[in-house]
């Protein structure tokens, strides 16, 4: 795509063309008060695949992730400009109810944050508030499928009434993923989902992400380049609020076009 | 290597110092806690020991004949007629039946001073509740007067009895009598009296001398004259005391300024008014009739150390109260009046029930106003309001309100609730509203702190699955903040419960002899609250209010402890970990 501005981002569309686009960002700028955190980012994120956002701390990768389900709005001073479309529906507009948007776009956070309720209630909360289940049996089914999809069912089936906060860190994170899946989202955003987990729990989550890819559009922010290489099909490298390079993961890691990308993945900075 | 050991030594020296500092800090902490505990024990202990007499009461039980003509003047047994009955005269007669020997009107008045006529209302209520009692003789139990009660509890005067073991003869069984002894058994009393008189005379002379000295050095003529006059007066008084104290006069008078002496003999009591100079004859009036005038050596001299002039109960009343106790008419028991009655002018009938109900009603109003409004305000400011100048201004003002003296809220209540809205004075409704205003800042500030302490990850989690802001707050943030909110609210309410000043402004300091009803209607009835009751009693003229003040403080403390225990219990129940 042709770049126009003085500080616009380089976007590689070639690889994305083979996959169907799900999310389209067009000239997105994000400001925290007077400070601009994201500079004119445009990209197309494909459906039924994993897209990884990498980059050094403070590069804006989490910020751009949070614009997709408008979680940035919960920060008073944050302001988002530009167009963000999911399946062509504009997201970044006053007319769109963030509640409906967030039912379409699930989110998993850095630190596992289950509600201090039972495992069942954690998963059932979303369907309940959105009225997705028509009865108790329906809700039970949703909870079971969600937990199965999150690969947690076998571990917690016999203790659904116990507090979700009593699970181990990795289990908690899978519970949170189950909670996100329960409202049948189209997109799942993950903000460094493994940074608080040990390698074994991380491996399980990565396995899970790989399985979920078949049904969802997944966007993951990660600090670990190895993780990005393992789980993602597409990788976007951000630096100082710019999208520096975006393309198939293989290309980014083996044949980066930009010197900054190369420096980062070879460990020269970051 | 050398360098290495130097560092090691320096660190070790420093380390010892650090440990010493830590030890000192810990010691100061323990000392502070011990000091606090011992002061607390001292405080509670002194209040508790002062309150003991208030929890005991001496009650008279007398057979009262409910004559139909007196109780039911109309004769139709109707409530109106029963209400016009003269119950007090029945009580008077019942008491008089115990001491038929008393004829003198003054003495009768003294006798009837042993109980308060307010008890007749209790008798009336008993009859009204059961009109079948008319015409019967019932045993009516009622508290003895506060002064007699204090005496019977041994708090008025030290008393001692001595048996001379010599033969004495009374001249009569009632009225003015003489008691003749066959030796000078009363001489020690005479000597004691003379000694006291002499001391008093000396004190007066001292005073006269001081006046004379001041007169000598006085500046003005007028001052000198008045000082000289004072000195002369003291000299005259002391001279008359001296002459009384001189042996050789015909008899020695007992005065109310001296310890009282009574003689118990032949089943009766004689009050000594005069003793012959020889110490063989005592003269006085009979307080409790003697059985006979037989001579005998089985008699005692009963001394009441505190002079009659320095106590509120007379010698005669003491003699009667003591006799009633000996006859089994007086029983000491637990003071239930303290818990079942509202305030009364008579300490023996005064209780805290009215104030407890008043406090309960006031607290209910405060709770239902301050907690919902306070929590809602905190939730709005913390979770919804934009952070701008206006909300900043509001926040500063709320914090400032917490520091406003409580009496200012009382003035506000008087001006707005009573004068402007025309709400009734002295009512728990207004009291509760005023205290709610006072409590609001505390509730808001503590609720905001509790809401702030809820981790943002919970809010993100709820928002992330598509909960609206209100759902996020109601489903997740509030339950987690509940323990903190609860604690803050309870602290605020406990503070309000102990508040007196603002309630004085809205007239809750009134004397309220009827407990307000524990209902919605009770909200507008005149009432008082516990701290105000304590304040009123501490100001009471009767000495018996002193232990009752302490007892009321204990009741208030007990209520506070219950209040806080409920708070701790609720907090434990609501506490959830994340």
Summarize the structure.
The complex is a heterodimer of chains A (270) and B (578). Chain A is an alpha/beta fold. Chain A has helices at 14-18, 61-68, 98-104, 119-130, 136-149, 153-156, 169-182, 199-212, 225-231, 249-254, 259-265; strands at residues 21-32, 35-46, 50-54, 78-86, 89-90, 105-108, 187-191, 217-221, 234-239, 242-248.
CATH superfamily of the domain at 350-574 in chain B: MetI-like
Helix content of chain A: 25-40%
* CATH architecture annotation of the domain at 350-574 in chain B: Orthogonal Bundle
Shape of chain A: globular
Proportion of strand residues of chain B: 5-15%
Sum up the structure in keywords:
heterodimer, A: 270 residues, alpha/beta, Rossmann fold, 6-stranded mixed beta sheet, 25% strand, B: 578 residues, MetI-like fold, 8-stranded antiparallel beta sheet, 11 strands, extended
Task: Describe the protein.
The complex is a heterodimer of chains A (270) and B (578). By secondary structure, chain A is an alpha/beta fold. Chain A has a single domain, classed as P-loop containing nucleotide triphosphate hydrolases (Rossmann fold, 3-Layer(aba) Sandwich). Helices cover 36% and strands 25% of the residues of chain A. Chain A has eleven helices and ten strands. Chain A has helices spanning 14-18, 61-68, 98-104, 119-130, 136-149, 153-156, 169-182, 199-212, 225-231, 249-254, 259-265; strands spanning 21-32, 35-46, 50-54, 78-86, 89-90, 105-108, 187-191, 217-221, 234-239, 242-248. A six-stranded mixed sheet of chain A has the order 6-7-8-3-9-10, with helices on both faces. Chain A has a four-stranded antiparallel sheet with strand order 2-1-4-5, covered by helices on one side. In chain A, a hairpin with a 2-residue loop joins strand 9 and strand 10. In chain A, helix 4 (119-130) crosses helix 5 (136-149), helix 5 packs across helix 7 (169-182) and helix 7 runs parallel beside helix 8 (199-212). The longest helix of chain A is centred in the middle third of the chain and has 14 residues, at 136-149. The two termini of chain A are 28 Å apart. By secondary structure, chain B is of the alpha+beta class. Among the domains of chain B are: 160-310, no CATH class; 350-574, MetI-like fold. Helix content of chain B is 59%, strand content 11%. Chain B has 20 helices and eleven strands. In chain B, the strands form two sheets. In chain B, strands 3, 4, 5, 6, 7, 8, 9 and 10 form an eight-stranded antiparallel sheet that branches. Chain B has a three-stranded antiparallel sheet with strand order 2-1-11. In chain B, a hairpin with a 2-residue loop joins strand 7 (260-265) and strand 8. The longest helix of chain B has 54 residues, at 2-55. The interface between A and B is medium-sized, with 29 and 23 residues.
